Amino acid sequence: MQNQSSPAQLLFPTVPSNYCPEGKWSDIFNSFIQLYLNNGTINIPGLGQVTPAQIATINQNIQNLQNEYNALAVNVKSGTISSPTAGLNLVTFSSAMPNTSYIITAYFVSASGTTATPANSWSIIDGSQATTGFSILLPTVTNYTKVNWSVQSIVST
User: Which of 14, 26, 91, 104 is the most core-located residue (most Cβ within 10 A)?
Assistant: First the structure.
């Protein structure tokens, strides 16, 4: 786009010196809007040099970004294992993830007044990571009361 040093302009027809409608103010304003403001144009230097193909590409890029954003927003789930047990704990999603390539994060919540650090090493059971949930193996759970988890998946385009 060239000629960007020129400012954008609002162009309106010239109001003739004999323009002097009579009547209620609302009728006068509506007449002015109808005759002059509605017939105005905006002149943006260089805008006419943008081709329809370039506009289509810009629109497609915007749509691709929107789709990626929507996929990211939809593909995050979180929850709590409210009564964790030592050993196997099953996590089930309320709706399926798009694939099994999601990231799992978890943190442990200690019981009130507990000063001991919880044994928070954990693992996912091999092969249990499915679109509908996963199985997590927890160590001894004497020092914590719940496990908060979240999964995130970014769909590649």
Answer: 91
- 144 - beta bridge partners? 110
Residue 28: exposed, middle, or buried by beta-carbon count in 10 A (0-12, 13-18, 19+)?
middle
- On whether the CB atoms of residues 94 and 140 are closer than 8 A, the answer is no
Strand partners, 138: 87
Could you tell me the pTM of the whole model?
A: 0.52
Contact present, 122 and 137 (Cβ < 8 Å): yes
Tell me whether residue 134 is exposed, middle or buried, using C-beta atoms within 10 angstroms of its C-beta: 0 to 12, 13 to 18, 19 or more: buried
How far, in whole angstroms, is CA 23 from its chain's centroid?
Answer: 51
